[in-house]
Structure of monogalactosyldiacylglycerol synthase:
Amino acid sequence: MNKGVSQESTLLLDLASHVNRFSFDSSSYLSFRSDHTVLSNFLHFNRTGPKRTVSLGLNLGGPTFRFRNILNDFNRAVRFHCEKIPIGFASLRFGDGDGDGGRSNGDGVGDGIRVDECGNVENEGFRVNGAEGGRPKKVLILMSDTGGGHRASAEAIKAAFYEEFGDDYQVFVTDLWSDHTPWPFNQLPRSYSFLVKHGPLWRMTYYGTAPRVVHQSNFAATGTFIARFHKLVTRCYCPTTDLAKRAMKAGLQQSQIKIFGLPVRPSFVKPVRPKDELRRELGMDEDLPSVLLMGGGEGMGPIEATARALGDSLYDENIGAPVGQILVICGRNKKLANKLNSIDWKVPVQVKGFVTKMEECMGACDCIITKAGPGTIAEAMIRGLPIILNDYIAGQEAGNVPYVVENGCGKFSKSPKEIAKIVAEWFGPKAYELNQMSQNALRLARPDAVFKIVHDLHELVRQRSSLPEYSCTA
């Protein structure tokens, strides 16, 4: 079995393969040959200085000449449009072990790296996948800023590592699409934001790309790539029992699965400060019950229409005074925030952009109106907030709606007027329903999920010398 490692300043990847091997070089083009494949970066110079891009080439000869020309055109387009370094660590080769591997020493590992008798990869005296004598352990979290939930979960894990283990761990959060892919792929997060704000386009993209007929041959080609539940993961963290059952049906073993809940910011575990104190800091009325209205990191959904409906329903014409107030979180949607700030409201309204202390906003409110983002739902349950779901992203968030409704934690409605009516009743004659849903939410909450995850990861790192090394071709 040949070993391989990818390396930047430290070694981050340790994979094993029965047939192919990885080696790294930083000075050759990508070429496809009959005996090996090499993927590497090179320097491209323009007015702003050197820039790394990826190049593709094909060297099969004969009838493939025309296809090679197409790839050459692609290379030129990539070199012209690439804005960031798509591959931050050197190169990647799949070979049969006969070539030099681009500075390989013949055992499948580059110069300065060796593999000991226990299979631990070492470089310049320190061990890569064994104990690293006093050095801080490094954690790489790959995510994408497609919505606010992915980064929030990643930052929650990073914060929990620091709170629990201090400087023993260095945690890096990387947007894989934006930071390590060339144009047009590095535009995906920006495209996602546009698509989710236009529901029909997103539904067409999400469902339109689903295959209607799948040939058996496709499974042979894609069987080793990461899926929703990859059988070779060391650990799969599931937020609910239902998802754990799906993971087992997909082929995971019970020993690979942990049901801890969704990772949310460690600050949600801390005691909640009094509502009047939080409301005072946020510029809200200290005595009026309040509703939190938000649409995720992108500020999507019928927020303006819902806010207007709430402004009418929370104002009692008989007494000429408000019976509630509104806190609106617009996320990155600056246009929406400006529009709401320009309205002459009859009830107290506070408008915020993208906030980092969501625990304080939730702690200041009595219920929440939001789209069906899993992270927001988990945070609201920890704070004991009854939830009104007013929207969801087609496909990926649809299953969150019945979870909230069937567990008695909230309601679902897309009608701004219906939502405003529910809130007005909760702040009036149906206060008992508001209280019951709050208790149901607290019962399902898992505030310590992020700490359980990092402690489990810490234990895996501690035992990693005995962890199995899986083959990429299994």
Remarks:
- The chain has a mean pLDDT of 73.
